Predict the 3D structure of the following.
Amino acid sequence: MEQGSPIRQRLRLPQSSAAPGAISSPSASPALWAPPDPVSPGARAPVNGALNSGVSTPVSASVGTPKNAPAPVGALGPNRFQTPLGLAGRGTPRQLSCRVLQSPLAGVSDRIFRQLVRRWAPEALLFTEMVNATSLELGFGLEKVEELASEAGPIGVQLFDYRPAAMADAARRAEQAGAFLIDINMGCPVKKIARKGGGSGLIRDPALAQRLVAAVAEAVSIPVTVKTRLGWCGESADPVGFALALQEAGAQALTLHGRTRQQGFRGQADWQAIAAVKRALTIPLFANGDVASPEDALRCLAETGADGVMVGRGTMGAPWLVGQIDAALAGRPVPPTPGKRERLALAAEQLQALVARRGDHGLLIARKHMGWTCQGFPGAAQLRQQLMGEPTPAGALKLLERAAQED
Ligand SMILES: Cc1cc2nc3c(=O)[nH]c(=O)nc-3n(C[C@H](O)[C@H](O)[C@H](O)COP(=O)(O)O)c2cc1C
């Protein structure tokens, strides 16, 4: 890669340490979750110091640091969201000072992505991609948990499996690595996982779901939470009953995606159904589904009465979104949405970091992110097309640099 190229000098991008090699595959590797189109940012949404203790200091940004510009939605922030939310745990209590959660996103919410999100949202609870407890037991995927130790701010580890003992063991490892809390995945729709009884499969076996929660809660002193969906399918869905069962088993908070497993990502998230669950629970509830802007978040919270929101697809290519929503809820000025130059700089930074970390495979992962980030400016569609066909990291970086120099 060219040293001291103009975009790097102007935007102070880190130099890549990886040797760029030609990459033959034209598209990103298949994600475990087939990512639907991110809710486009703008429309509806187009889509470390203090170690992972929840007490974080803002991370200084080399690029894309939001400037506090006034935006009207900030004035709408209800006071109740400025009160920290306490989760007792069993010996290690945690406090959430930010009511917006970055959702776990397999194939997306890796450490590099989290560090970008963190720039805008120093206090927010972020999550690892979901981690397979059995794989951890066998020694795979350990880095997804161990890397937490060097990251600032609260980070939850999301685990999935259907075996209570494996989950308990994985939870212990995650706690030792510095997890802020443990979240149990009971919403993943992927057939291979659900068929075995993990992810959304647990919705069909509330007794096993309860045993899992109890086993994990007993294994760790930090809080244990669950992320789930409204049900398996429309006819059988009993979100209130299932949520109460999880609460009874020891879950200290729930995140509820307002769709059933059968719906996948189709239709609209049912915020009214989330409201019914919120009314029934005594533990905090985070509403999830179709929140892709500060305005959506405020509407969702008003409609559901939830204690906070979790955002997923809206953050893909928009790592600033969690911070924007946080500011709106806290009544602070909402940081502006980055324009072309900042987006290109972010894309270049993420590309370089991914290649430095993952080698040539990093380019495949970066293509996804560049496709999401390079949106919303003249020539973006053409640039995306060029980026998807570019076989080397150095070539992709040049394309980004050239685009940044165009008016
Ligand atoms: C690419 C992708 C990966 C996801 N990975 C996970 C995951 O690892 N764990 C999980 O609980 N949910 C996962 N989800 C679901 C999201 O966390 C979220 O519940 C869902 O997208 C609805 O929220 P949204 O409308 O804000 O996107 C994933 C979704 C997508 C699109």
